[in-house]
Design goal:
two-stranded antiparallel sheet; globular; single chain; eleven-stranded mixed sheet; alpha/beta; about 400 residues; binds NADP nicotinamide-adenine-dinucleotide phosphate
Amino acid sequence: MTPNFSSLKPPTRGTPISRRGGQLVVPDNPIIPFIEGDGTGPDIWRASVRVFDAAVAKAYGGKRRIEWFEVLAGEKAKNATGEWLPNDTLEAVKAYKVAIKGPLTTPVGGGIRSLNVTLRQVLDLYACIRPIRYFAGTPAPVTHPERMNVVIFRENTEDVYAGIEFAKGTPQAERVIEFLAKEMGKRIAPDSGIGIKPMSETGTKRLMRMAVRYALAHHRKLVTIVHKGNIMKFTEGAFRDWSYEVAKAEFRDQIVTEEEVTAGASRDGKLVINDRIADSVFQQILTRTAEYDVFATPNLNGDYLSDACAAQVGGLGMAPGANIGDDMAFFEATHGTAPKYAGKDVINPGSLILSGVMMLNYLGWVEAGALIDTALEKTIAQKQVTYDLARQMKGAKELKTSEFADAIIKNM
Ligand code: NAP
């Protein structure tokens, strides 16, 4: 049912995406809310939406079409409504199930939390999914960037990102310090700031369940649990144990653990589950890149790992992302608003375009997703790229944001 928006007007054409028995029901003309984003957001949105529409039109010969519905967040929302994240926007995502966004400014000060973190928590988008692979021709800092092809499942709502923090010297921090000293016999320096790191069995298991389901559905070979459980035993260590538990309890016939294989069990085409300590993963992903496949990891490890893997294949300008829960999904560019380039039509729209590919695949419109993927790859291989890649490539033709979109559409 369409909610009663206070200021938004949904499109008069199109049909909402819904769920039946937990399954997504996608009509041929779904209404999809979008947030164009701040800074360079409008530049990359304008380019990306043309690519999405062209791919859908070409893949389905006009039988399918997305009805875009602009919803507001960030500076545009603040100017139009006085709020950074209007309730209408949250209601629209809840009602239409699938949405996409450009980057948003994080307002500094004024007690406003990151809009991205708020969206993830309020909509319970508990998995941040980042597929990272190499596009041939992209300048990269390593000798074999093509060996990287991983998908990172990062827990999105818990860990030190839960937002439970108390500044040094506040009555709250002092009370926590006093409580720990009196009740638990644990000494903390009195001039400390305090942050809490909650990690739950429920939060961990649903993340791991999603990672394993994805790996099985996409015929991946390995899921690696990344944790720092040797030091943080009851949070990161428990994350490791709960992850193995859910894999064995719910997918026993389809998985085998690395430990079981070492003890003589046959792989027999099954998905292997192993775990690695977080710091070792950072050297392994550089030195034994091709061995890694799907990662399941808590919030902070996942944040670092995502950017490190993206950097290895040529940077953040091309890295897509999705925030997914059991009911809703929000696809997003992973870089920031790059405000100094706003309105100049120069920025790389690759991250948002590839996030759109993830969205099309999520809808089951894989033919349209594949058209974009292949055309983007071809465009980069032809050395037709935006400034960020052109400045690192010999003989590249530097294109504007809009021209890059034209080139991709032409290559479809
Ligand atoms: P940023 O906007 O990501 O930009 C930093 C630099 O990265 C840019 O100056 C540019 O480098 C390069 N870059 C970023 N996106 C690019 C693209 N699409 N194509 C080519 N180059 C790109 O980071 P920031 O300046 O730290 O953050 C600006 C604002 O964005 C802040 O308000 C921050 O909170 C917000 N932010 C939002 C998100 C999000 O919405 N998901 C994520 C991160 C940050 P060169 O100058 O070298 O060309």
